[in-house]
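Run log, item B.
One chain of 222 residues. Sequence copied directly from the ordering sheet:
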Amino acid sequence: MHADQPKPPGAPVHQGTPGHQDTPGPEGTPFVVRFAELASAEPDRLALTCDDVSITRRGLESMSNRLARDLIARGVRHGDFVSIVVPNSIAFVVAELASWKAGAVPQPLSPKLPVSELREIIDLTEPALVIGDVGAEVAGGRALLPADHQPDPALDDGPLPAVVSPAWKAPTSGGSTGRPKVIVAGRPALVEETDLSADVFGIEHGGVVLVPLARCRTTRRT
């Protein structure tokens, strides 16, 4: 969608310019910096458990760094959207972290949505890349990776340059018209911008959050 073309109803407003973050971002602690600090402080502490699979903070940091480099190599740039059509799982969390590390805006989408609705949302959002087990017709010719995609193990899994995604998420809503709408968060991916949400839900530092739909458990509060 070009800037000089009118946007269809429900289309998101991009809050960042695609490309590398070459101008100073908002002040605060980027999500990606805080997680790297946590992984460095307690690398062997469990970060996620899903069914009988667990991953440590060090493992999650390594996997998301490698996937972030994969996304960047496939054309994802700062301010782009990445549509994540993946159930609640370790793969979902890795994809979200990798999107932030690439400076992108993650858009979580339920794999249970009808194909026609998924296609309409993705057409509205115009993501740089789609992650999920969806058909090429849903991705609309955009770069597509399967939900269980594994990046080339030769890719570096070390830290990336710190960036701040201009919006920490871009979920959707049916709205009053029944047509899908994309809601771009008005806050960047900074700890200080979202930490109050943890307070509202009573999540304590070092606490554990259960995600029952996927029978997963994750440490959420940092």
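Observations after the first pass:
- The chain has six helices and ten strands.
- Confidence is low (pLDDT under 50) at residues 1-10, 13-23, 213-222.
Flagged for discussion on Thursday.
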